[in-house]
Amino acid sequence: MSRSYSVLFILLCSIFSLKGFSQGFLKVDGKKIVDEKGNNILLRGVGLGGWMLQEGYMLKINKEAQQYRIRERITALMGPKQTQEFYDAWLSNHMRKIDVDSMKRWGFNSIRLPMHYNLYTLPVDEEPVPGKNTWLEKGFALTDSLLAWCKANQMYLILDLHAAPGGQGNDLNIADRNPSKPYLWNSEANQQKTIALWKKLAERYKNEHYIGAYDILNEPNYGFQNPDEDKNGTKEKLNAPLRKLMVEITKAIREVDQNHIVIIEGNGWGNNYNGIFPLWDNNMVLSYHKYWNFNDQASIGHIIKARDEQNVPVWLGETGENSNVWFTDAIQLLEKNNIGWSWWPLKKIGSNNPMEIKSNPNYDALVRYLNNGGNRPKDSNVYSGLMELAIYSRLENTIIHRDVIDAMIRQPFSNETKPYKQNLIKNGSIIYAVDYDLGRNGQAYFDHDTADYHVSTGKRSVGNSGRIYRNDGVDIAKDSTQYEKYYVTRIETGEWLQYTVNVAKAGKYSLSINAAANTDSGAITLHIDGKPIAAQIKIAKTESEKKFDSFVVQNIPLKKGVQKVKVLIDNGGFNLAYLQFVRE
Question: Which positions fall inside the CBM6 domain (predicted)?
Answer without folding.
Answer: 446-582
